[in-house]
Amino acid sequence: MNILAKKEIKLFLILxxxxxxxxxxxxxxxxxxxxLEATLGIAPLSYMLFGEQMSFNLTAGVILWPVVFxxxxxxxxxxxxxxxxxLSYLAVGLISFAFLVVFAAIHLAxxxxxxxxxxxxxxxxxQLAFTKIxxxxxxxxxxxxxxxxxxxxxxxxxFHKLKQITGEQKIWLRATGSTLVSQFxxxxxxxxxxxxxxxxxxWA
Length: 204
Known about the structure:
The protein is mainly α. It has one domain (3-30, 64-197). Helices cover 68% and strands 6% of the residues. It is built from 7 helices and 4 strands; from the N terminus they run αβαβββααααα. The protein has helices at residues 7-29, 36-40, 65-106, 112-115, 126-134, 138-166, 171-197; strands spanning 33-35, 47-49, 52-54, 57-59. A hairpin with a 2-residue loop joins strand 2 (47-49) and strand 3. The longest helix has 42 residues, at 65-106. It is globular. The model has no long low-confidence stretch (mean pLDDT 81).
């Protein structure tokens, strides 16, 4: 029996593959902080928040997390709560596995020639650069995983609650509403766990 002959199974695999790939990539590119103003070619937009002068400096992960939450809503619409929960748990497991592999790679003894192989490109120590980029703090990793799982479950709950109110119509309202709520909570949980509860621990 060819299970891939069924369109609904093939679609679930495609959506699930993109969902998990985006979640893993977002975790790793999230170490880069970029200036939204500079990227858009506009002057810095300074503002005050809690007595601190702020500007729009964002983690590169924001490029992909909206895609993850939108795909959550699509999967939720066609495969229900169990479909989203299954992929969310699987994504957390695979992200954790990816971090364990990176942890092992960081602690492999580097070849002597490799360490300074990019010194002429402004990277005097490749091992330190590799460790700095991939060796995220343990509390940041924990915070992002917990926030992702909470955000996903909240997205599902809000999506279904709005569906009870709107019926089969206004999918845009369900998708937008659930994504906004889950994104806000996701960001808040990461900040609390990584920078309030956690110390500056690292796998490096």
